[in-house]
Design brief:
Layout (H helix, E strand, L loop, with lengths): L5 E6 L2 E6 L10 H16 L5 E6 L3 E3 L4 H8 L7 H4 L30 E5 L2 E3 L1 H8 L2 E5 L3 E3 L13 H9 L1 H10 L3 E2 H7 L4 E3 L4 H15 L2 H14 L4 H16 L2 H11 L10
Helix pairs in contact: 5-6, 9-10
Length: 277
């Protein structure tokens, strides 16, 4: 696929998807949505890719939906209608073994077998914040800013944000961010638990890539896929159900090539050569 609004590169078993409308702080469009979905599908299908990074070009991660589109919708001037204009659509294919919860428009990130890291280099606002919530890890530049924006636009908590945000930052913090729609800096985001880590802007890209490379080179891709699935499924399970599921997964892992390699490389004091099998 030819990309017009994103950049897509693969190196060191890491795929990096960069939202590339820096003059608009990477404001989201229907075309960008399609390109990101296509790039993620490509990375997911590539056996040589083990980690995905989502970031933005320039000063922003993603400043939310493109304001020109919102202006047209507010004026009733978008002939395509709201759903088509915003790129709303049902899942293309109902994937076997994936919860319906993780097959919606942006909630499909948790269903990927590979970890997705949000490298939040600048403003993550509105839809941009939602994108980061569905990533598995969130690393913030010290320059990053966060905000929900919706209540200040006459809108509501979109795309399941009212479900996801409280699970990351707690009920009180979620209501604060949603009702006030205020901007917070990276330090406050870290205190709330919204991001995993704040990294100085000067070394941000380098440190995020180093973390991603460590996952790609030192960790079993099979283990990452199973653990990710366990964690997201556990959000809907009782402790008993999660325990039973883990016992089944444990038996399967003990029969895997990656388990044998995990023991061998440790005993032999060498770098691992995991295959994902």
């Amino acid at each position: 696929m030819s990309y017009q609004q994103i950049l897509f590169e693969r190196s060191d078993r890491v795929a990096t998807i960069t939202l590339n409308r820096p003059e608009k702080l990477n404001a989201w469009t229907a075309q960008m949505d399609q390109e990101v979905r296509a790039a993620i599908a490509t990375a997911e299908a590539d056996a040589d890719v083990r980690v995905i990074i989502l970031t933005g070009a320039g000063r922003g991660f993603c400043a939310g939906a493109d304001m020109s589109l919102l202006q047209d919708l507010a004026a009733g001037q978008h002939s395509a209608g709201v759903d088509q204009a915003l790129g709303h659509h049902a899942p293309d294919v109902q994937r076997a073994g994936v919860r319906p919860d993780f097959q919606r428009k942006y909630s499909y990130f948790p269903s990927l077998s590979k970890p997705v890291i949000a490298a939040i280099n600048g403003h993550a606002v509105g839809l941009g914040l939602i994108l980061s919530l569905y990533c598995d890890l969130r690393f913030a530049s010290s320059d990053a800013k966060f905000g929900t924006a919706f209540a200040r636009r006459g809108l509501i908590a979109e795309y399941g944000m009212a479900w996801m945000l409280p699970r990351l930052v707690g009920h009180a913090h979620a209501l604060d961010l949603l009702l006030s729609a205020r901007l917070i800096d990276a330090a406050e985001a870290a205190r709330m638990g919204l991001v995993n880590r704040v990294i100085p802007a000067e070394t941000f890209a380098e440190e995020v890539r180093a973390y991603a490379r460590e996952l790609a080179q030192c960790v079993s891709p099979r283990s990452m896929a199973v653990i990710k699935k366990q964690v997201y499924n556990a959000m809907f399970q009782t402790l008993e159900e999660a325990t039973v599921a883990s016992e089944h997964a444990m038996r399967e892992s003990l029969e895997s090539d990656d388990f044998r390699e995990g023991v061998a490389h440790f005993v032999e004091k060498r770098a691992p050569n995991f295959t994902g099998q």
